[in-house]
Amino acid sequence: MSLRAESHAATSALKKIAADMSNIIESLDTRELHVEGEEVDSEVLNDPKGTVCIPFSAIYHTHGFKEPGAQTYLTGCPVRVRVLEVERFTSTKKVPSPNVYTIELTHGEFTWQVKRKFKHFQEFHRELLRYKAFVRIPIPTRRIDYFSRNDFFSSSLLAGKDRPNHCPLGDFQDRAPWSPYSSLHEPGKQLEDYLSNILKMPMYKNYHGTMEFVGVSQLSFIHDLGPKGIEGFIMKRSGGHRIPGLNCCGQGRMCYRWSKRWLVVKDSFLLYMKPDSGAISFVLLVDKEFNIKIGQKETETKYGLQIDNLSRSLILKCNSYRHAQWWRQGIDEFIRKHGKDFLTEHRFGSYAAVQENTLAKWYVNAKWYFEDVANAMEAAKEEIFITDWWLSPEIFMKRPVVEGNRWRLDCILKRKAQQGVRIFVMLYKEVELALGINSEYSKRTLMHLHPNIKVMRHPDHVSSSVYLWAHHEKLVIVDQSVAFVGGIDLAYGRWDDDEHRLTDVGSVKRMTAVKSVSTANLASAAESERVPLQPQALAPESHLFERNADDASDISKMKGVGKPRKFSRFSIYKHLHKHSMHHADSVSSIDSDSSYSNPTRSQPNIIQSLRPHLKMFHHHSESKQGLAEPREADKGSIRSLKTGVGELLGETRFWHGKDYCNFVFKDWVQLDKPFADFIDRYTTPRMPWHDISSVVHGKAARDIARHFIQRWNFTKIMKPKYRSLSYPFLLPKSQQTANELKYQVPDAVPATVQVIRSAADWSAGIKYHEESIHKAYISVIENSKHYIYIENQFFISCADDKVVWNKIGDAIAQRILKAHRENKRFRVYVVIPLLPGFEGDISTGGGNALQAIMHFNYRTMCRGENSILGQLKAAVGDKWINYISFCGLRTYAELEGKLVTELIYVHSKLLIADDNTVIIGSANINDRSMLGKRDSEMAIIVQDTETVPSVMDGEEYSAGKFAQSLRLRCFRVVLGGSDQNPEHQDPVCDKFFKEVWISTAARNATIFDKVFRCLPSDQVNNLTQLRDFINKPKLANDDPAKAAEELKKIRGFLVQFPFRFLEEEYLLPSVGTKESMVPMEVWT
What we know:
Blueprint: H1 3-27, H2 42-46, E1 79-88, E2 99-107, E3 110-117, H3 118-134, H4 144-147, H5 149-159, H6 185-200, H7 202-205, H8 208-214, E4 231-237, E5 258-265, E6 269-273, E7 280-285, E8 291-294, H9 296-299, E9 304-308, E10 313-317, H10 321-338, H11 340-343, E11 354-364, H12 366-378, E12 383-388, H13 409-418, E13 422-428, H14 439-447, E14 453-458, H15 461-464, E15 475-478, E16 482-486, E17 507-511, H16 519-528, E18 530-532, H17 549-555, H18 572-577, H19 632-635, E19 640-643, E20 646-651, E21 689-690, E22 692-697, H20 698-718, E23 749-759, H21 761-764, E24 770-771, H22 772-783, E25 787-792, H23 808-821, E26 827-831, H24 848-861, H25 868-876, E27 884-895, E28 898-903, E29 905-906, E30 909-913, E31 917-921, H26 927-930, E32 937-944, E33 947-952, E34 955-960, H27 961-975, H28 990-1012, H29 1023-1031, H30 1035-1038, H31 1040-1047, E35 1054-1056
Parallel strand pairs: 12-13, 13-14, 21-29, 25-26, 26-27
Antiparallel strand pairs: 1-2, 2-3, 4-5, 4-10, 5-6, 6-7, 8-9, 9-10, 11-22, 11-23, 12-15, 15-16, 16-22, 17-18, 17-20, 19-20, 23-24, 23-32, 25-30, 27-28, 27-35, 30-31, 31-32, 33-34
Helix pairs in contact: 1-3, 22-23, 23-25
């Protein structure tokens, strides 16, 4: 084609576009819409800098699209309009204009585009005229030549005659005449003016038709939801959810219905809303399987649009193929621009990206963890998410209790709910006949506190066909900005500190009130005026400080509205599931034929009567755990304990009611009576609880919140009882605002963090299971250079591809063999419980469930050719002892004048490698937690970016600040001493490994065996020896004084793990027993 011909063609196209533009301009006149007395908002005209943001909580207060009063726009901020492009397309139909106009709108920080044809402008203008007439506002009278469009454009504009100067919206009348041969920018400017004028009048700006035309809704301009994508009405087809189990209705291709919905696109998710109520009726998260298809062949729908992710195939229906193309292009471009991190495959196959410069902090034991969780909850402004395997509403988060019920969990949640914070709790729904955690009571108790507290339980065992697996995550997320993740449930028995006390009798002593006392005389005054509290000086609630069975019975009525329940004994069904959660935090079953009581609900202040008798002084700001130095009060007795509100002289109780427990001695019963003791604390020591947790901020917290949201929304879809509007869909906040922290946990340090998990179709509704925790463990072990430190509740590994499948134990053995071949030092430290956490008398063998777990633990450690030691001995003989150590924890105390001992239950899920990499989470080392298809789990892998000078294998080494400080604290707890003990600095050298770690564990174990004849023991290889062993006298009973002298030689809590205990016995359940009927996967 010649240059002249091309120029002529371009000119012709230009003329056609210009002519079409002339038609549309002549058909629109905003003066027709002007209302007498309607003024333009001065705030909009002034465009102030201090724009008022719409709070994130607005997502819970949406209204129907036609209802007045809903806030859509930012206060004090104009909407700016700009026509970017005029696109001409061919059409087989005879239409006045085949042009599409791309219009860019800007409102505050938000910018978006809409595409409209000229007919859309005409229809919009006519709708506004109808709306004006509908509201019955008088139409102003005007001269016919002023009102006439023809006179206006032909005479006024072209001839330049005088025009009325009354035009409050600054209409086209002040523009120069527009001709078909002028630049395309001029008609674009006139369209901008038209739409801008409409958006300056509140009457039309807030009209639902206007909001539809410009593509905005109540969720468009919420800062924490991120940038604004395209929005609009669309038809969606029901079904497409990937829900396992018995689900048929609406899931097939032949059974569906179409509904009109408002579709909203955000940076990491899509949602649609019901226009009549404004309710969010579905949320589709962007993930690595996110994909968009169009066409009848792909979607089986004319002008169809199919959006896939791991959870659903959502099918939409558009008005035309071009309309479908526009939606696909708009969604795809927006998501790839703003949500690309969610589309890609991440390390270890995780759903979450590696997040750099993330503030993180660790916790050893629950004391400091509970305190920081309570403080973070208290600072919550919008949302609190909680998910636990077990949750006890009445636990105290700060101890000792010196402020009444203020820091009791249920009181914190109620207080925040009353302040407008939305609280969402997800609990594992246990098989009631098999497990006694009574989640139904926890749900009922929390739901009765306030309407802003919503609780879901999952799974429904029959409908989902899930009987053996559990939700095992332990998460607390505040405002999607601070996320606590680890192994600590907000439940009974979890609170503990570094002292791991066995007793909690309590003997609070007071001082006579003194108005003024000098610092110099303070100590002497405290010593001379300390007197014990008299029983009659206390209110009836003082059973917390005095042994009184009747008082305890009365106080048990303080809390709980449990309806009568009965649990059947000896049910085959019960025993099928009794230990299905065997790793799940040491709780078994409720074997009670008696019905629960239904006491009147009340919440008296259980400590208020005591407060007048406590003299508190020396106000002291308590430093938090993490990288801070240990306090003197933490190192010794509680006889002089400084708290955040003062100092208590004497001893007080830390564990009230059901919180004082020893689950190997007796499992929890009657959980609806939280303040009634269920074991005698004067004769039975409690079982100390050793645990690890963490907190992260910013983007990593957003990732953890995303997992919670995915599970919550999946549960809402799956369970009909949660489909009502009272259980809302949750929305993830944008990663773009993640670093705008409103609250920060003290003493956190920056590091690189990635969130990893175990999730599957039954737990999160995803197409493919995820086992990123398993992959992360193996990767860290294989790539470690100096040492591995592991604390875990279970140690079941070494795959045989028959019963056990996870390969963590194999990775450890292979890493040691690699070090042996290279003739390099490499250490592996493994700390696990001395006994599994099941109710049972170990003196008689412990029962079938306890023995089954012992079998798989021993099979991993030392028994059989697949065990770690079996693999090592086959290659290096007895030299394995230079590489790996297995230990447990034990402590002792004096209870009512008698020496007692008990193991410390290790519940941690921790791996540290090379003082620079840490994995903390809820996942045990077993198939249930690691394979992804079974229990749902959550963890984080932390890699240090800040280093401190240290020593490794005798050489200078740059250790990570986060990892090394955590290891040193763990060593201090289990070995005794301090975090700065120079012996603990180098975990690889022979001096530490042999002369400190191995020596301490062996010495402590020998002393405990000598004094208490503890079980498990290497001296007991079979049940016959067990009977003889327990009948022999104990030094603690025969000569308490000598026993006490021996116990003074104990350092820390570390003891060697007894490899030979019951090694001659077959520990798996015998054929014919109830436990033998349970699938083997339950134990592994």
